[in-house]
Amino acid sequence: MAVAPTSPATGSTEVDPSARRALGYALGARVADCVTMVEEAVAGMRWTGRPNPAYLERRPAVIWLSTLLIARWLACGANADADELGWIAERGRLAAQARVSVVNIVRANLAWRDTLKRVLQEEAARLGTPRDVLDDTLRAVNYNCDSGIVRTVGVFDEHVDHISEQLDAERAALRHEALHDSLTGLPNRTLLYDRLEQARRTALRRHSNFAVLVIDLDGFKEVNDQLGHRMGDVVLNQVAACLVSVVRGADTIARLGGDEFVAVLEGADRAAASVACRRMLRTLLHDITVGTGAIPLGASIGISLYPEDGDDGCVLLEVADQAMYWAKLDGGRLVRWAGDGQARP
Questions:
Q1: What does the radius of gyration of the chain's CA atoms come to, in whole angstroms?
Q2: Does pTM surpass 0.70?
């Protein structure tokens, strides 16, 4: 039994109280017998799944307390309190967490019900208990068994929901990890290619442009050499935040690795891409700080435009990367456009 029967409060108040009290005392005296009989009955049933030693060890205590609660109710009309029901419900949660089959638990509940009814009938015959008292008691036992099964299923449903939520969260975390840079949280190369394809499809459908910017930091090696890699990571995170801050929500800032970033600006033509580049260079120059000091970083930026520089995301990325390389060769801290060979501020 994983979940105890609920408090047996369904009996009639018109039955002979002394007869019911005597039946309760008689059942209380046979609590240990009931535990043994239930365990023997369950042992003869086919176990579904792999037996769980912890559940099997806890089950006799649950049977004992559940039987005692029925006996106490008969003897003095006291219902189970919150602590008692909470203790048994916790055993149910442990069974759910241990993945004990609900079939096994329902079988144990039914075995407990049948055993209790058998013992009550035996004691009623011995005591000469009035029929209405026995019938009222048997109805309470049936009610408690049924409610125990319902509670068991409810606990297992809650556990399944909890596990499903955990799995969903783990899947989301794994997906995020697979598609994002571990340091900055920006989209990584895999997600970048997907965003490039999305931008291409959008531009094709709307007969519009989009720009691809490859951004390589100037002077970052000196930061790493002078301040160490840990502070270099701090700077990279600040750079990522700065780049995100100067583009629109629909645009993408990705990190390819090291100090190289990519921007995908949806719907951007040459003029819009130029504005974005100026903003990036300005924020990198003024907004990067370590401790109390500012670190003026520059960047070499290469730009390609769809569709004039290519009709495929990979091609656009390649030609933008080549343009960035030209910017580096020309001294850095400037912008080069794919195919035109002219430096632009």
A1: 37
A2: no
